[in-house]
Amino acid sequence: MNKTEGKSLKEFINDFIDSFGWPRLIIALFLIMLFIIAPLGGISITQSISDVLQRFGMNSIMVLAMVPMIHSGCGLNFGLPVGIIAGLLGGTISMQLGFTGGLSFVMAVLIATFFGIIFGWAYGVLLNKVKGGEMMIATYVGYAIVSFMCMMWLLLPYNNPQMVWGYKGTGLRTTISTEGYYLHILSDFLQIKIGNLVIPTGSLLFFAFFAFLMWAFLHTKKGTAMTAVGSNPIFARASGINVNSTRTLSVIMSTVLGAIGILAYQQAFGFIQLYMGPFYMALPAVSAILIGGASVNKATISNVIIGTLLYQGIVTMTPSVMNSLVHTDMSEVIRIIVSNGMILYALTRKTEGAK
């Protein structure tokens, strides 16, 4: 009887490890170890948890933007900068028009959604012409639009003195503060403070809202069709599903989520970063969802949540813990090593879903 129970427990553990995955388990244990070590270096656990939650709220929607394209078979959205540019246009135009406070953020979201739909449609049409090489083409599309906008930020007719270069009065600055507009509009909403622990309730609810919408959509007829296109496009076409339009819809959804995601990032970060700022922003989002357990053709909301928490937790905790133990300011070096190391791991396992 005991042997049977022992065997069942062993099988349960093995099944859990197989489903959760050794890499994620190791990363999760490493993150827990960092939290255990942190007090030895004088680091506040509650402050660290607050930082991780803050970064989760900042980045989670951009990770969520990966889900629709993965479901439709377009792969990982390395062209996320297309959506980010739409979000930057929404934020800067809202500020240019003089909107402030909550209305500034709402208008930024509406304008960003408008541009996201247009850019997403064009982006989707392009990806439909390069089936099989979407991720490679998407990477170059993202790089191209960022480079193109480096010129447009100088040429577009912005004249808000808080946004343009002071010595000439034209061309947007590299970094623009959101103070007086939508700074912390989500982070401070219903914020909970318990000692040093700060929970950005508004940011978390904002993500939860879009996560619920994504979950609900994937359970609709259109969402099921999108999953069918990603799983077997030939069968989907035989079932009467318009494959190209479904793929285009997924790209539009991903682009719009990327646009809204960068606005959520900006309100917490406090600045709009233009020019080359969005250049590499797709890689952490791709890395996070892969670390969360997604593959190139399957992703869930839980993959988004787990991956974002693990990725942002490691990137947040490692530099602070190492600095406190070594007593040398290596935060930026450690952040780069850890961040790119996790991206390298994530990208090397991106083909597992195809096995």
Short description:
The protein is mostly helical.
Structural commentary:
Residues 1-5 and 350-355 have low confidence and may be disordered. Strand 2 and strand 3 form a beta hairpin. The protein has a two-stranded antiparallel sheet with strand order 1-4. Strands 2-3 form a two-stranded antiparallel sheet. The chain is globular, with a radius of gyration of 21 Å. With 355 residues, the chain is mainly alpha-helical. Helix 13 runs antiparallel to helix 14 (331-348). It is 69% helix and 3% strand. The chain is built from 14 helices and four strands.
Helix and strand arrangement:
Layout: H1 2-20, H2 22-37, H3 45-64, H4 66-71, H5 80-96, H6 101-128, H7 134-155, E1 175-177, E2 192-194, E3 197-199, H8 201-218, H9 221-231, H10 233-238, H11 243-269, E4 271-273, H12 282-291, H13 301-326, H14 331-348
Antiparallel strand pairs: 1-4, 2-3
